[in-house]
Amino acid sequence: MQVTRNGGFNPFESADEKVIYYAKSESDESPVWKAPANGGEETQVLDSVYRSAFAVSRNGIYFILPPGVRYFTFATGISKPVLAIEKPPPGLDRIA
Questions:
Q1: Rounded mean pLDDT, 23-43
Q2: For 5-15, how does the pLDDT look when each residue is reduced to its tens digit (9 = 90+)?
Q3: Cβ contact 81:74 at 8 Å
Q4: Range from 30-34, 41-45, 70-74, 84-88 carrying the lowest mean pLDDT
Q5: CB-side neighbour CA atoms (13 Å) of 63
Q6: What is the CB neighbour count within 10 angstroms for residue 67?
Q7: Could you tell me the pTM of the whole model?
């Protein structure tokens, strides 16, 4: 079943399997969106992540946004830095 309407990259399913989270593009910075796994309205969750580098946990989303890793909490809708990156990890060699 098609879940997105305008493309999507690097999808992750929520812990309860009801929501799919995905980047809208493979560009250097892309917003993250969500959609019900059984189809429905797409909603933007994050303004920008670096090169589709994010991972969904039970309570939020870890994502790379230079100069480091941030964590977005579903309950509060707030993202906070969790780790500064001095050197880019392999595959993410363009982090500023």
A1: 89
A2: 777 888 999 99
A3: no
A4: 84-88
A5: 28
A6: 13
A7: 0.83
Beta carbons within 10 angstroms of residue 50's beta carbon? 23
Residue spans per domain, the chain: 9-84
Query: Residue 42 carries which side chain, given as an amino acid letter?
Result: E
Contact 89, 46 (CB under 8 A): no
Give φ, ψ of 34 to 5 degrees.
-135, 155
The sheet carrying 9-13 orders its strands as 9-13, 19-23, 29-36, 43-50
**When comparing pLDDT for 92 and 35, which is higher?**
35
Q: Give the closest residue to 29 by CA, choosing from 53, 54, 7, 49.
A: 49
> What is the spatial distance between Cα 84 and Cα 6, in angstroms, rounded to a whole number?
32
Torsion sign across C-alpha atoms 89, 93, 71, 53? negative
